[in-house]
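ESCALATION

Customer reports they have been waiting on this structure for their group meeting. Please prioritize. Original submission:
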Amino acid sequence: MSQRSRTGTATLAAALLALAVLAGGCTEAGGVRGTPGAAGLRDPFFPKLGNGGYDVSHYGLTLAYDPASGRLDGTTEITARAGQDLSAFNLDLAGLTVRGATVDGAPAAYNRAGNELTLRPHEEIPEGAEFRATVTYTGVPEPLTDADGSKEGWLRTAGGAVAVGEPAGSMTWFPGNHHPSDKASYDVTLTLPAGTDGFSNGIRTARRTEPDGRVTTEWHSAEPMASYLATVAIGRYETGTATALGSVPVLTAAEPPVAAGSAALQGEIPGILARQVERFGPYPFSAAGAIVTRDGTLGYALETQTRPVFPSASFDRTTLVHELAHQWFGNSVTPADWRDIWLNEGFATYAEWLYAEEYEHVPARTHFARAFAQDANWAFPPAAPPSAENLFDPPVYQRGAMVLHKLRETVGDRVFDEILRGWAAKYRHANATTGDFTAYAESVAGRDLDALWDVWLYGDGKPDRP
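Update from on-call: job pushed to the front of the queue and completed.
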């Protein structure tokens, strides 16, 4: 991110089944064995976000949207594996009306409490078993207002919508395990009125016109993705295509009022990625691109996986470098919880400094000195934001980048480059913590770096000199 019905007997039987499951849980010959999965993962800033008891491997989202009314009709199929004997499990879902739910094809009872949707399958799910949960839902999605006052989630526009989800907004348009520690592959199917374009992450695998005139596009994201990085953009767009790194398809989309002004920079994406590959290692995804919207809907750029989203005012080279660097740092290597957001933003900010050093002849030390002089960067340590309201404050970005520059000065360029590339490789498509990073850096450097971490990463005060 850049700086923020049926009737009669069948109905009666179904109702009795739901009441029985809600009342008694799941039973077998030996009695109740399974227990409900946790309703949250105790993230330090979002304790109710995410859910315990299972791990998602795939989301299949089938969405139909009417821009005129704002109505979204959705079906989400979740493929997951039980981490315990499950009598029930939760999904994160804000607003919207659930029409029905099944688990492995059988009706499942469900109930809502705030943003928690609880599903109770008719039969217990054994630990280790793979299962499929399907939820159908409808309604007019509403955005979330974050602790810092910014808007996220499903953001409606005059002719469509843009969906962004950092840190929790994806729950406004599909149910799921919406914590960054549970990454999954995605297939997204969008059905929209004729003349309306739809875009999502990954590769577009199909486009067809339905008998009623609506247009359906299908999108496939094979690599694991945290739900906050999922996106859709709906409206009228002009597209561009290219190829990066020899084989990676690049698809860009820009709303007509800003398409001409952004076309040249869109064309730089393959070149920027090629330079970043030299510094960060192999590109971690099978697609790339960007979405550029008119100003007024989105107040910040976001590194949505493979296809970052930019309001026109933020679509500049520095921000593009930042969001593309996130494909390695944040999207492929994803924080284990939101406390470690500096692993995203500090790295992407330092990628800006590296780009300026290599291609604009501005030494990274110059950026470091400027950041050191700014009082706002010393409000708190980058590894310890005090609250959710501070997740996207200057210390996370600028002081996070300062940590990396001090590491570079301490270990030297050769070892630093080895750390940078090796970190992206070791935790490719995985989750990591600040402790994982400091331990990895020390293992590559072959030395204790506590003095560096104590001052620059965890220290409360500003050092006497840079």
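Sent to customer with the following note: The CA atoms of residues 25 and 52 lie 17 Å apart.
Escalation resolved.
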